[in-house]
């Protein structure tokens, strides 16, 4: 009797737990929380110090000017702080005098404003009551469902008033007598504390700010050296560059803001004076101060003049003119004047300005709202120069989150040719078409070729990418391949945030078409053959387009035309040179060797150029391997390929057997 044993059950699949976060990340989170808590708890101390440091950035150019005049460093710092204090005192005195004048006419302004409010309320509630009455008349039935008249409400019944109850008119009813409690006279100390305590706080903060600002200005060089020693003594170049960048950006920002906001206040003052709003100097000063608050400052500055304008006359003319003044002055200053003064921007993205304003207001209140932009700008500068803080630049800075190459590849993946064309037009303002193709387009296609090799790019997405790349090359057909003028390049570099180009457009003079040797006098002497990769045809199209722009006609042939079955049908009429493009030729290039052998048999005596756009391939550096492959020229960029073709077409190089190609070597 045989017994069957059941198979042993398989052990359950062991699922690996998710990896635990690294200790360094947790430490960074803890450090960030501690820093935020310290900023909040120590705000009484940190706010005056921060204001003093920022004030020193504003006064630093004035100190430098006074030192150039001949004053000693200490005297220049003290005089600068005294001048700043005098300006603030003058502004405060003017505001006090103007407010005192407004207080004397406050009752008349209040009466006019109340009349306007009542008229607006009456008009609004009148319309609402009229609409409600109409709706009630339409919805209330005149009779009951059985046709009878609706019941009338009964008149109230008069009842005799009872003594001692509410409503009673009894003569014996006694009303409660109000009791008033009077305190004794306040002492002099209590009165002084009552009136001086609201003033002592701001005066104390102001005094601390100016004292710290004096010491910062006098010890500026020493503080800089101490910061370098503390944060970057091992890398003096980077630390010095970071400090200089921070100082330059902050000084430029504050001086520009001070001039622009001052000009805005002068415009508001003149406009309100012409309109007839009382105390225009006060509202102009407040408009200049409120404009330091991002986005909402001008709206807050316009509120009080609008209210006062409503109290100066019975009508609405003054109110409308005041609103029009702010509605015109702010957009012109923000959208026209500021871009001209700042250049491209302060280095912050618009979203980061809003988030920073909310964050610093939560931490430090109204002062934090004013300091939000300069403090965030300091964080962005740190992120650009300190590797561990690079995330601050990514989140808060105005530089693109993706590089031009990554942005190109992402747009190609999405099939968005229009967005890729817009990016290309921006980059072509400070570089040639050859530089754009070499440094952006081909590098982006290389990323796609890597994804194809890894098997992560599905066929439909690959086809969309190929169509988008072909469409982009067609859209750039009318763009000349030439270097921009130095002035245009400098302007684009000032406005842009991308790296400068590394190469220029090819510049090889060609003789007239009739004087060119052999088949180079034809219309399309260059045959641009695509490699066997799915994106090599796009690279061949770029090369053919660049050759045509430099006076050498070219046509693109797919890789299938060079196969063993189709190579005999390849049109060889008028071909003076064959250029083969490869974006990916990893591993042994045996297929390239056999391809070149077939082309030699089909096109005897025609030079063969192989473009291996990924730099660093062994065939570009190993002479033995290059000779075994059998090409006449090897190049690593479109620039080198175009230059080599132009040299051969002009007869400026010896025969291919002795030629030394640009960017490579002869086989």
The gist of it:
With about 675 residues, this protein is mainly alpha-helical.
Question: What's the helix and strand layout?
Answer:
Blueprint: H1 23-41, H2 43-69, H3 73-104, H4 106-139, H5 188-218, H6 220-232, H7 236-275, H8 280-290, H9 297-310, H10 317-342, H11 350-364, H12 366-385, H13 390-396, H14 404-414, H15 417-427, H16 433-454, H17 459-475, H18 486-495, E1 526-530, H19 536-549, E2 554-557, E3 577-582, H20 590-602, E4 608-612, H21 618-621, H22 623-629, E5 633-635, H23 638-650
Parallel strand pairs: 1-2, 1-3, 3-4, 4-5
Helix pairs in contact: 2-3, 2-5, 2-7, 3-5, 6-7, 7-8, 7-10, 7-12, 8-9, 9-10, 11-12, 12-13, 14-15, 14-16, 15-17, 17-19, 19-23
Percent of sequence in beta strands? under 5%
The helical percent reads 55-70%
User: What would you call the structural class?
Assistant: mainly alpha
Which regions contain 5 or more consecutive residues with pLDDT less than 50? Answer: 1-16, 164-172, 658-667
End-to-end Cα distance, whole Å, is: 80 Å
Shape: elongated
String of helices and strands: HHHHHHHHHHHHHHHHHHEHEEHEHHEH
Spatial strand order of the main sheet: 2-1-3-4-5
Could you tell me the radius of gyration in angstroms? Answer: 40 Å
Mean pLDDT: 77
The beta-strand count equals: 5
The total of helices stands at 23
Question: Could you give a short account of the major beta sheet?
Answer: 5 strands, parallel
